[in-house]
Specification:
The structure is a homodimer.
Chain A: H1 13-24, H2 40-54, H3 61-68, H4 82-95, H5 105-122, H6 138-149, H7 158-189, H8 193-198, H9 201-204, H10 213-220, H11 230-247
Chain A binds a DNA duplex through loops.
Protein name (chains A, B): TetR family transcriptional regulator
Keywords (chains A, B): DNA-binding, Transcription, Transcription regulation
Organism (chains A, B): Lentzea atacamensis
Amino acid sequence: MQASGAEGAWLKQSDRDRAVRLLWEPPAEPTRGPKAALSQSRVVEAAMKVADAEGVEALTMRRVAETLGFTTMSLYRHVPGKSELLDLMVDAAWGETACVPKGPWREGLEFYARQMWQMYRAHPWILQLPHSRRTPGPRTMASFDAALAVVSELGLTAEEMVAVVTAVGHFVDGVGRTMADRVKAERETGMTEEAWWDGQDALWAHFTPERLPMMTHIWTTGGFERPLDEFEFGLARVLDGLAVFIESEDRPLVRRETCL
Amino acid sequence: MQASGAEGAWLKQSDRDRAVRLLWEPPAEPTRGPKAALSQSRVVEAAMKVADAEGVEALTMRRVAETLGFTTMSLYRHVPGKSELLDLMVDAAWGETACVPKGPWREGLEFYARQMWQMYRAHPWILQLPHSRRTPGPRTMASFDAALAVVSELGLTAEEMVAVVTAVGHFVDGVGRTMADRVKAERETGMTEEAWWDGQDALWAHFTPERLPMMTHIWTTGGFERPLDEFEFGLARVLDGLAVFIESEDRPLVRRETCL
DNA sequence: TACACCCAGTGTACGACGTAAGCAGTTAAG
DNA sequence: CTTAACTGCTTACGTCGTACACTGGGTGTA
C-alpha cells in the first residue's frame, strides 16, 4: 500500500517500538540461514549516496537496489520500509557531525550551527524530509545534548536553554532549506542560479517601478548582484540577539499559548 | 510522463515563459466554444482547500477534481500541470497577507514576520513545497517589496537591506517548518504532540544520564513540559540581533564566497 | 443557413512509485 | 537427516501524474 493519507495511517504502538529498536538497538546477527550479502548499513549508505547525488525525489527503493546490484525487494530483508530507512539515514548524517565541545556559550552555539550547516550542505535532502515526530536516533540526540550543555551554566531556566538552542536550529533550518532548494534546482535544470535568473526576461518585464518600487531600485543599484552570505550574516545576527537576551538582567518569559 | 528525475528535466525556455505568463498575466476569456463550467481560480481554490484540510500528500489531481465534481483530466483544461498549479496556490496564499505598512523598521519587520507566520499556519503545506526557483508571482513579490521598503531609510547598502529582510524570512521558514511537520503528524496519527511523546516509553528507556546528561537533567526538571513559544522567543531574538547590526557604527561586510 | 473551427470535459492507458505475498535455495540447530 | 530460520527473487496490486484521442457544444465566417 502507498503511504496512506489522512485516515487509516494510525501508527500502532508496535510500529513505534520497532522504529525505536531499529535506531537504538544494534541488530543481532542471525545464527542460521545463509550469510547475508547485503546489510542494513550498506543499504543506508547506498541510499545516502543516491540522495546526495540525485536528490530525494530520485531516492526510490528501486534506485537504491539498482546501485547495489540487487533486486528491489531484497532491501526489505534489511530495512522494514522506506520510512524507517529515512530514519536511519537522518541519524547517520547527524553521526557525521562533531558534538559541541565545552566552552563559552557563543562559540559553542556557533560551532553547533556550523556543524548543522555543514551537514545540510553535504546532505541537503534532510531538509526535504518530514522532521517532527521522526523517531530521534542516538546520534541526533547526542548532538542536541552537547549543544544544551554549552548553555547550561548561564543561569537560564530549563525551558530557556531549550529555546535558545532551538532558535539557532530554526535559523539554520531556514537558511538550509533555501540552500537545499537551490542545489536541487541546479541539479534539475543544469543551470546555475545566476544563469537561471538571467534567462527570466519574461519575468523581469513585469518588474516595473510602479508595481515593485523597492525591487527595481535595488535591482538598478546592483543589490542583487553580489548578495551577502545568508548563513554568515544571519548567524551573526541571531547570536547577537541571543547575547542581548542572555546578558540581560530580567528576561521576559514567553510561554507557549496559541502555538500548536 | 512522471515528474522526471535528474536527467531530462531541463526546462525549456517556453515552459518558463509559460509559467511567467500564467502568474503575471490574467488569462483572457476565450470568445468561442462552450462556456466553461470550471475555471482556473476555482481549481486553485479547491486545491488549496484540499491541501489545507488533508495536507500536500493528499493533494492529487484526482482528489481536487473529485471535490469539484469533475473528472481528473478536466483540470488540465485550466491549469497546465500540477507544478504550475502549485505556483498559483503559493502566490494565492501570499495574496492573503497584508503588505508591511510604512513605519519604523522594527515594527515593520515584526509585522512582516507575523504575516508570514499567519500564512504558514493557515497553509502549512507551503513549507513542504520546493521554494527556490519557483517562479515568483506578483503577490509574493509585492509582500517582499513592502518589507524592503521598511528598511530602506536606514543607511544600509542594497545588499544589506536584502540580507536583513531575508534573515527574518529564514527564521520564520525554520520555525514554520517544524510547525508544519507537527500539524501534519497530528493529522496523520490523530494524536496530539504530547500524547505521542507520552507513548514513547521504549524511547525514553534509552535516555540515560550517562548517554544524554543534559536531556535527562532538563527532563527531570520539567524543561520539556512547558516549552517557550518558539516563534515569539526566536522572533524577539532575531529582531534584537538585527537592531545591534542596524544601530552599530561600522557594519561588517559579509560577502558571499563559499555559499552555493 | 452551412460549416469549419475551437474548446470544455471524458475515458482509457502507460510507466513510475511503495510494498504485500509467496517461492526457491542455503545454512545451522535439533 | 530433518527442520526451522533466513536470504534474495518474482509477481502483482493500487496509487500517482498525465499523454492522447474522443465527443459534443458553441461561435465566427462563407
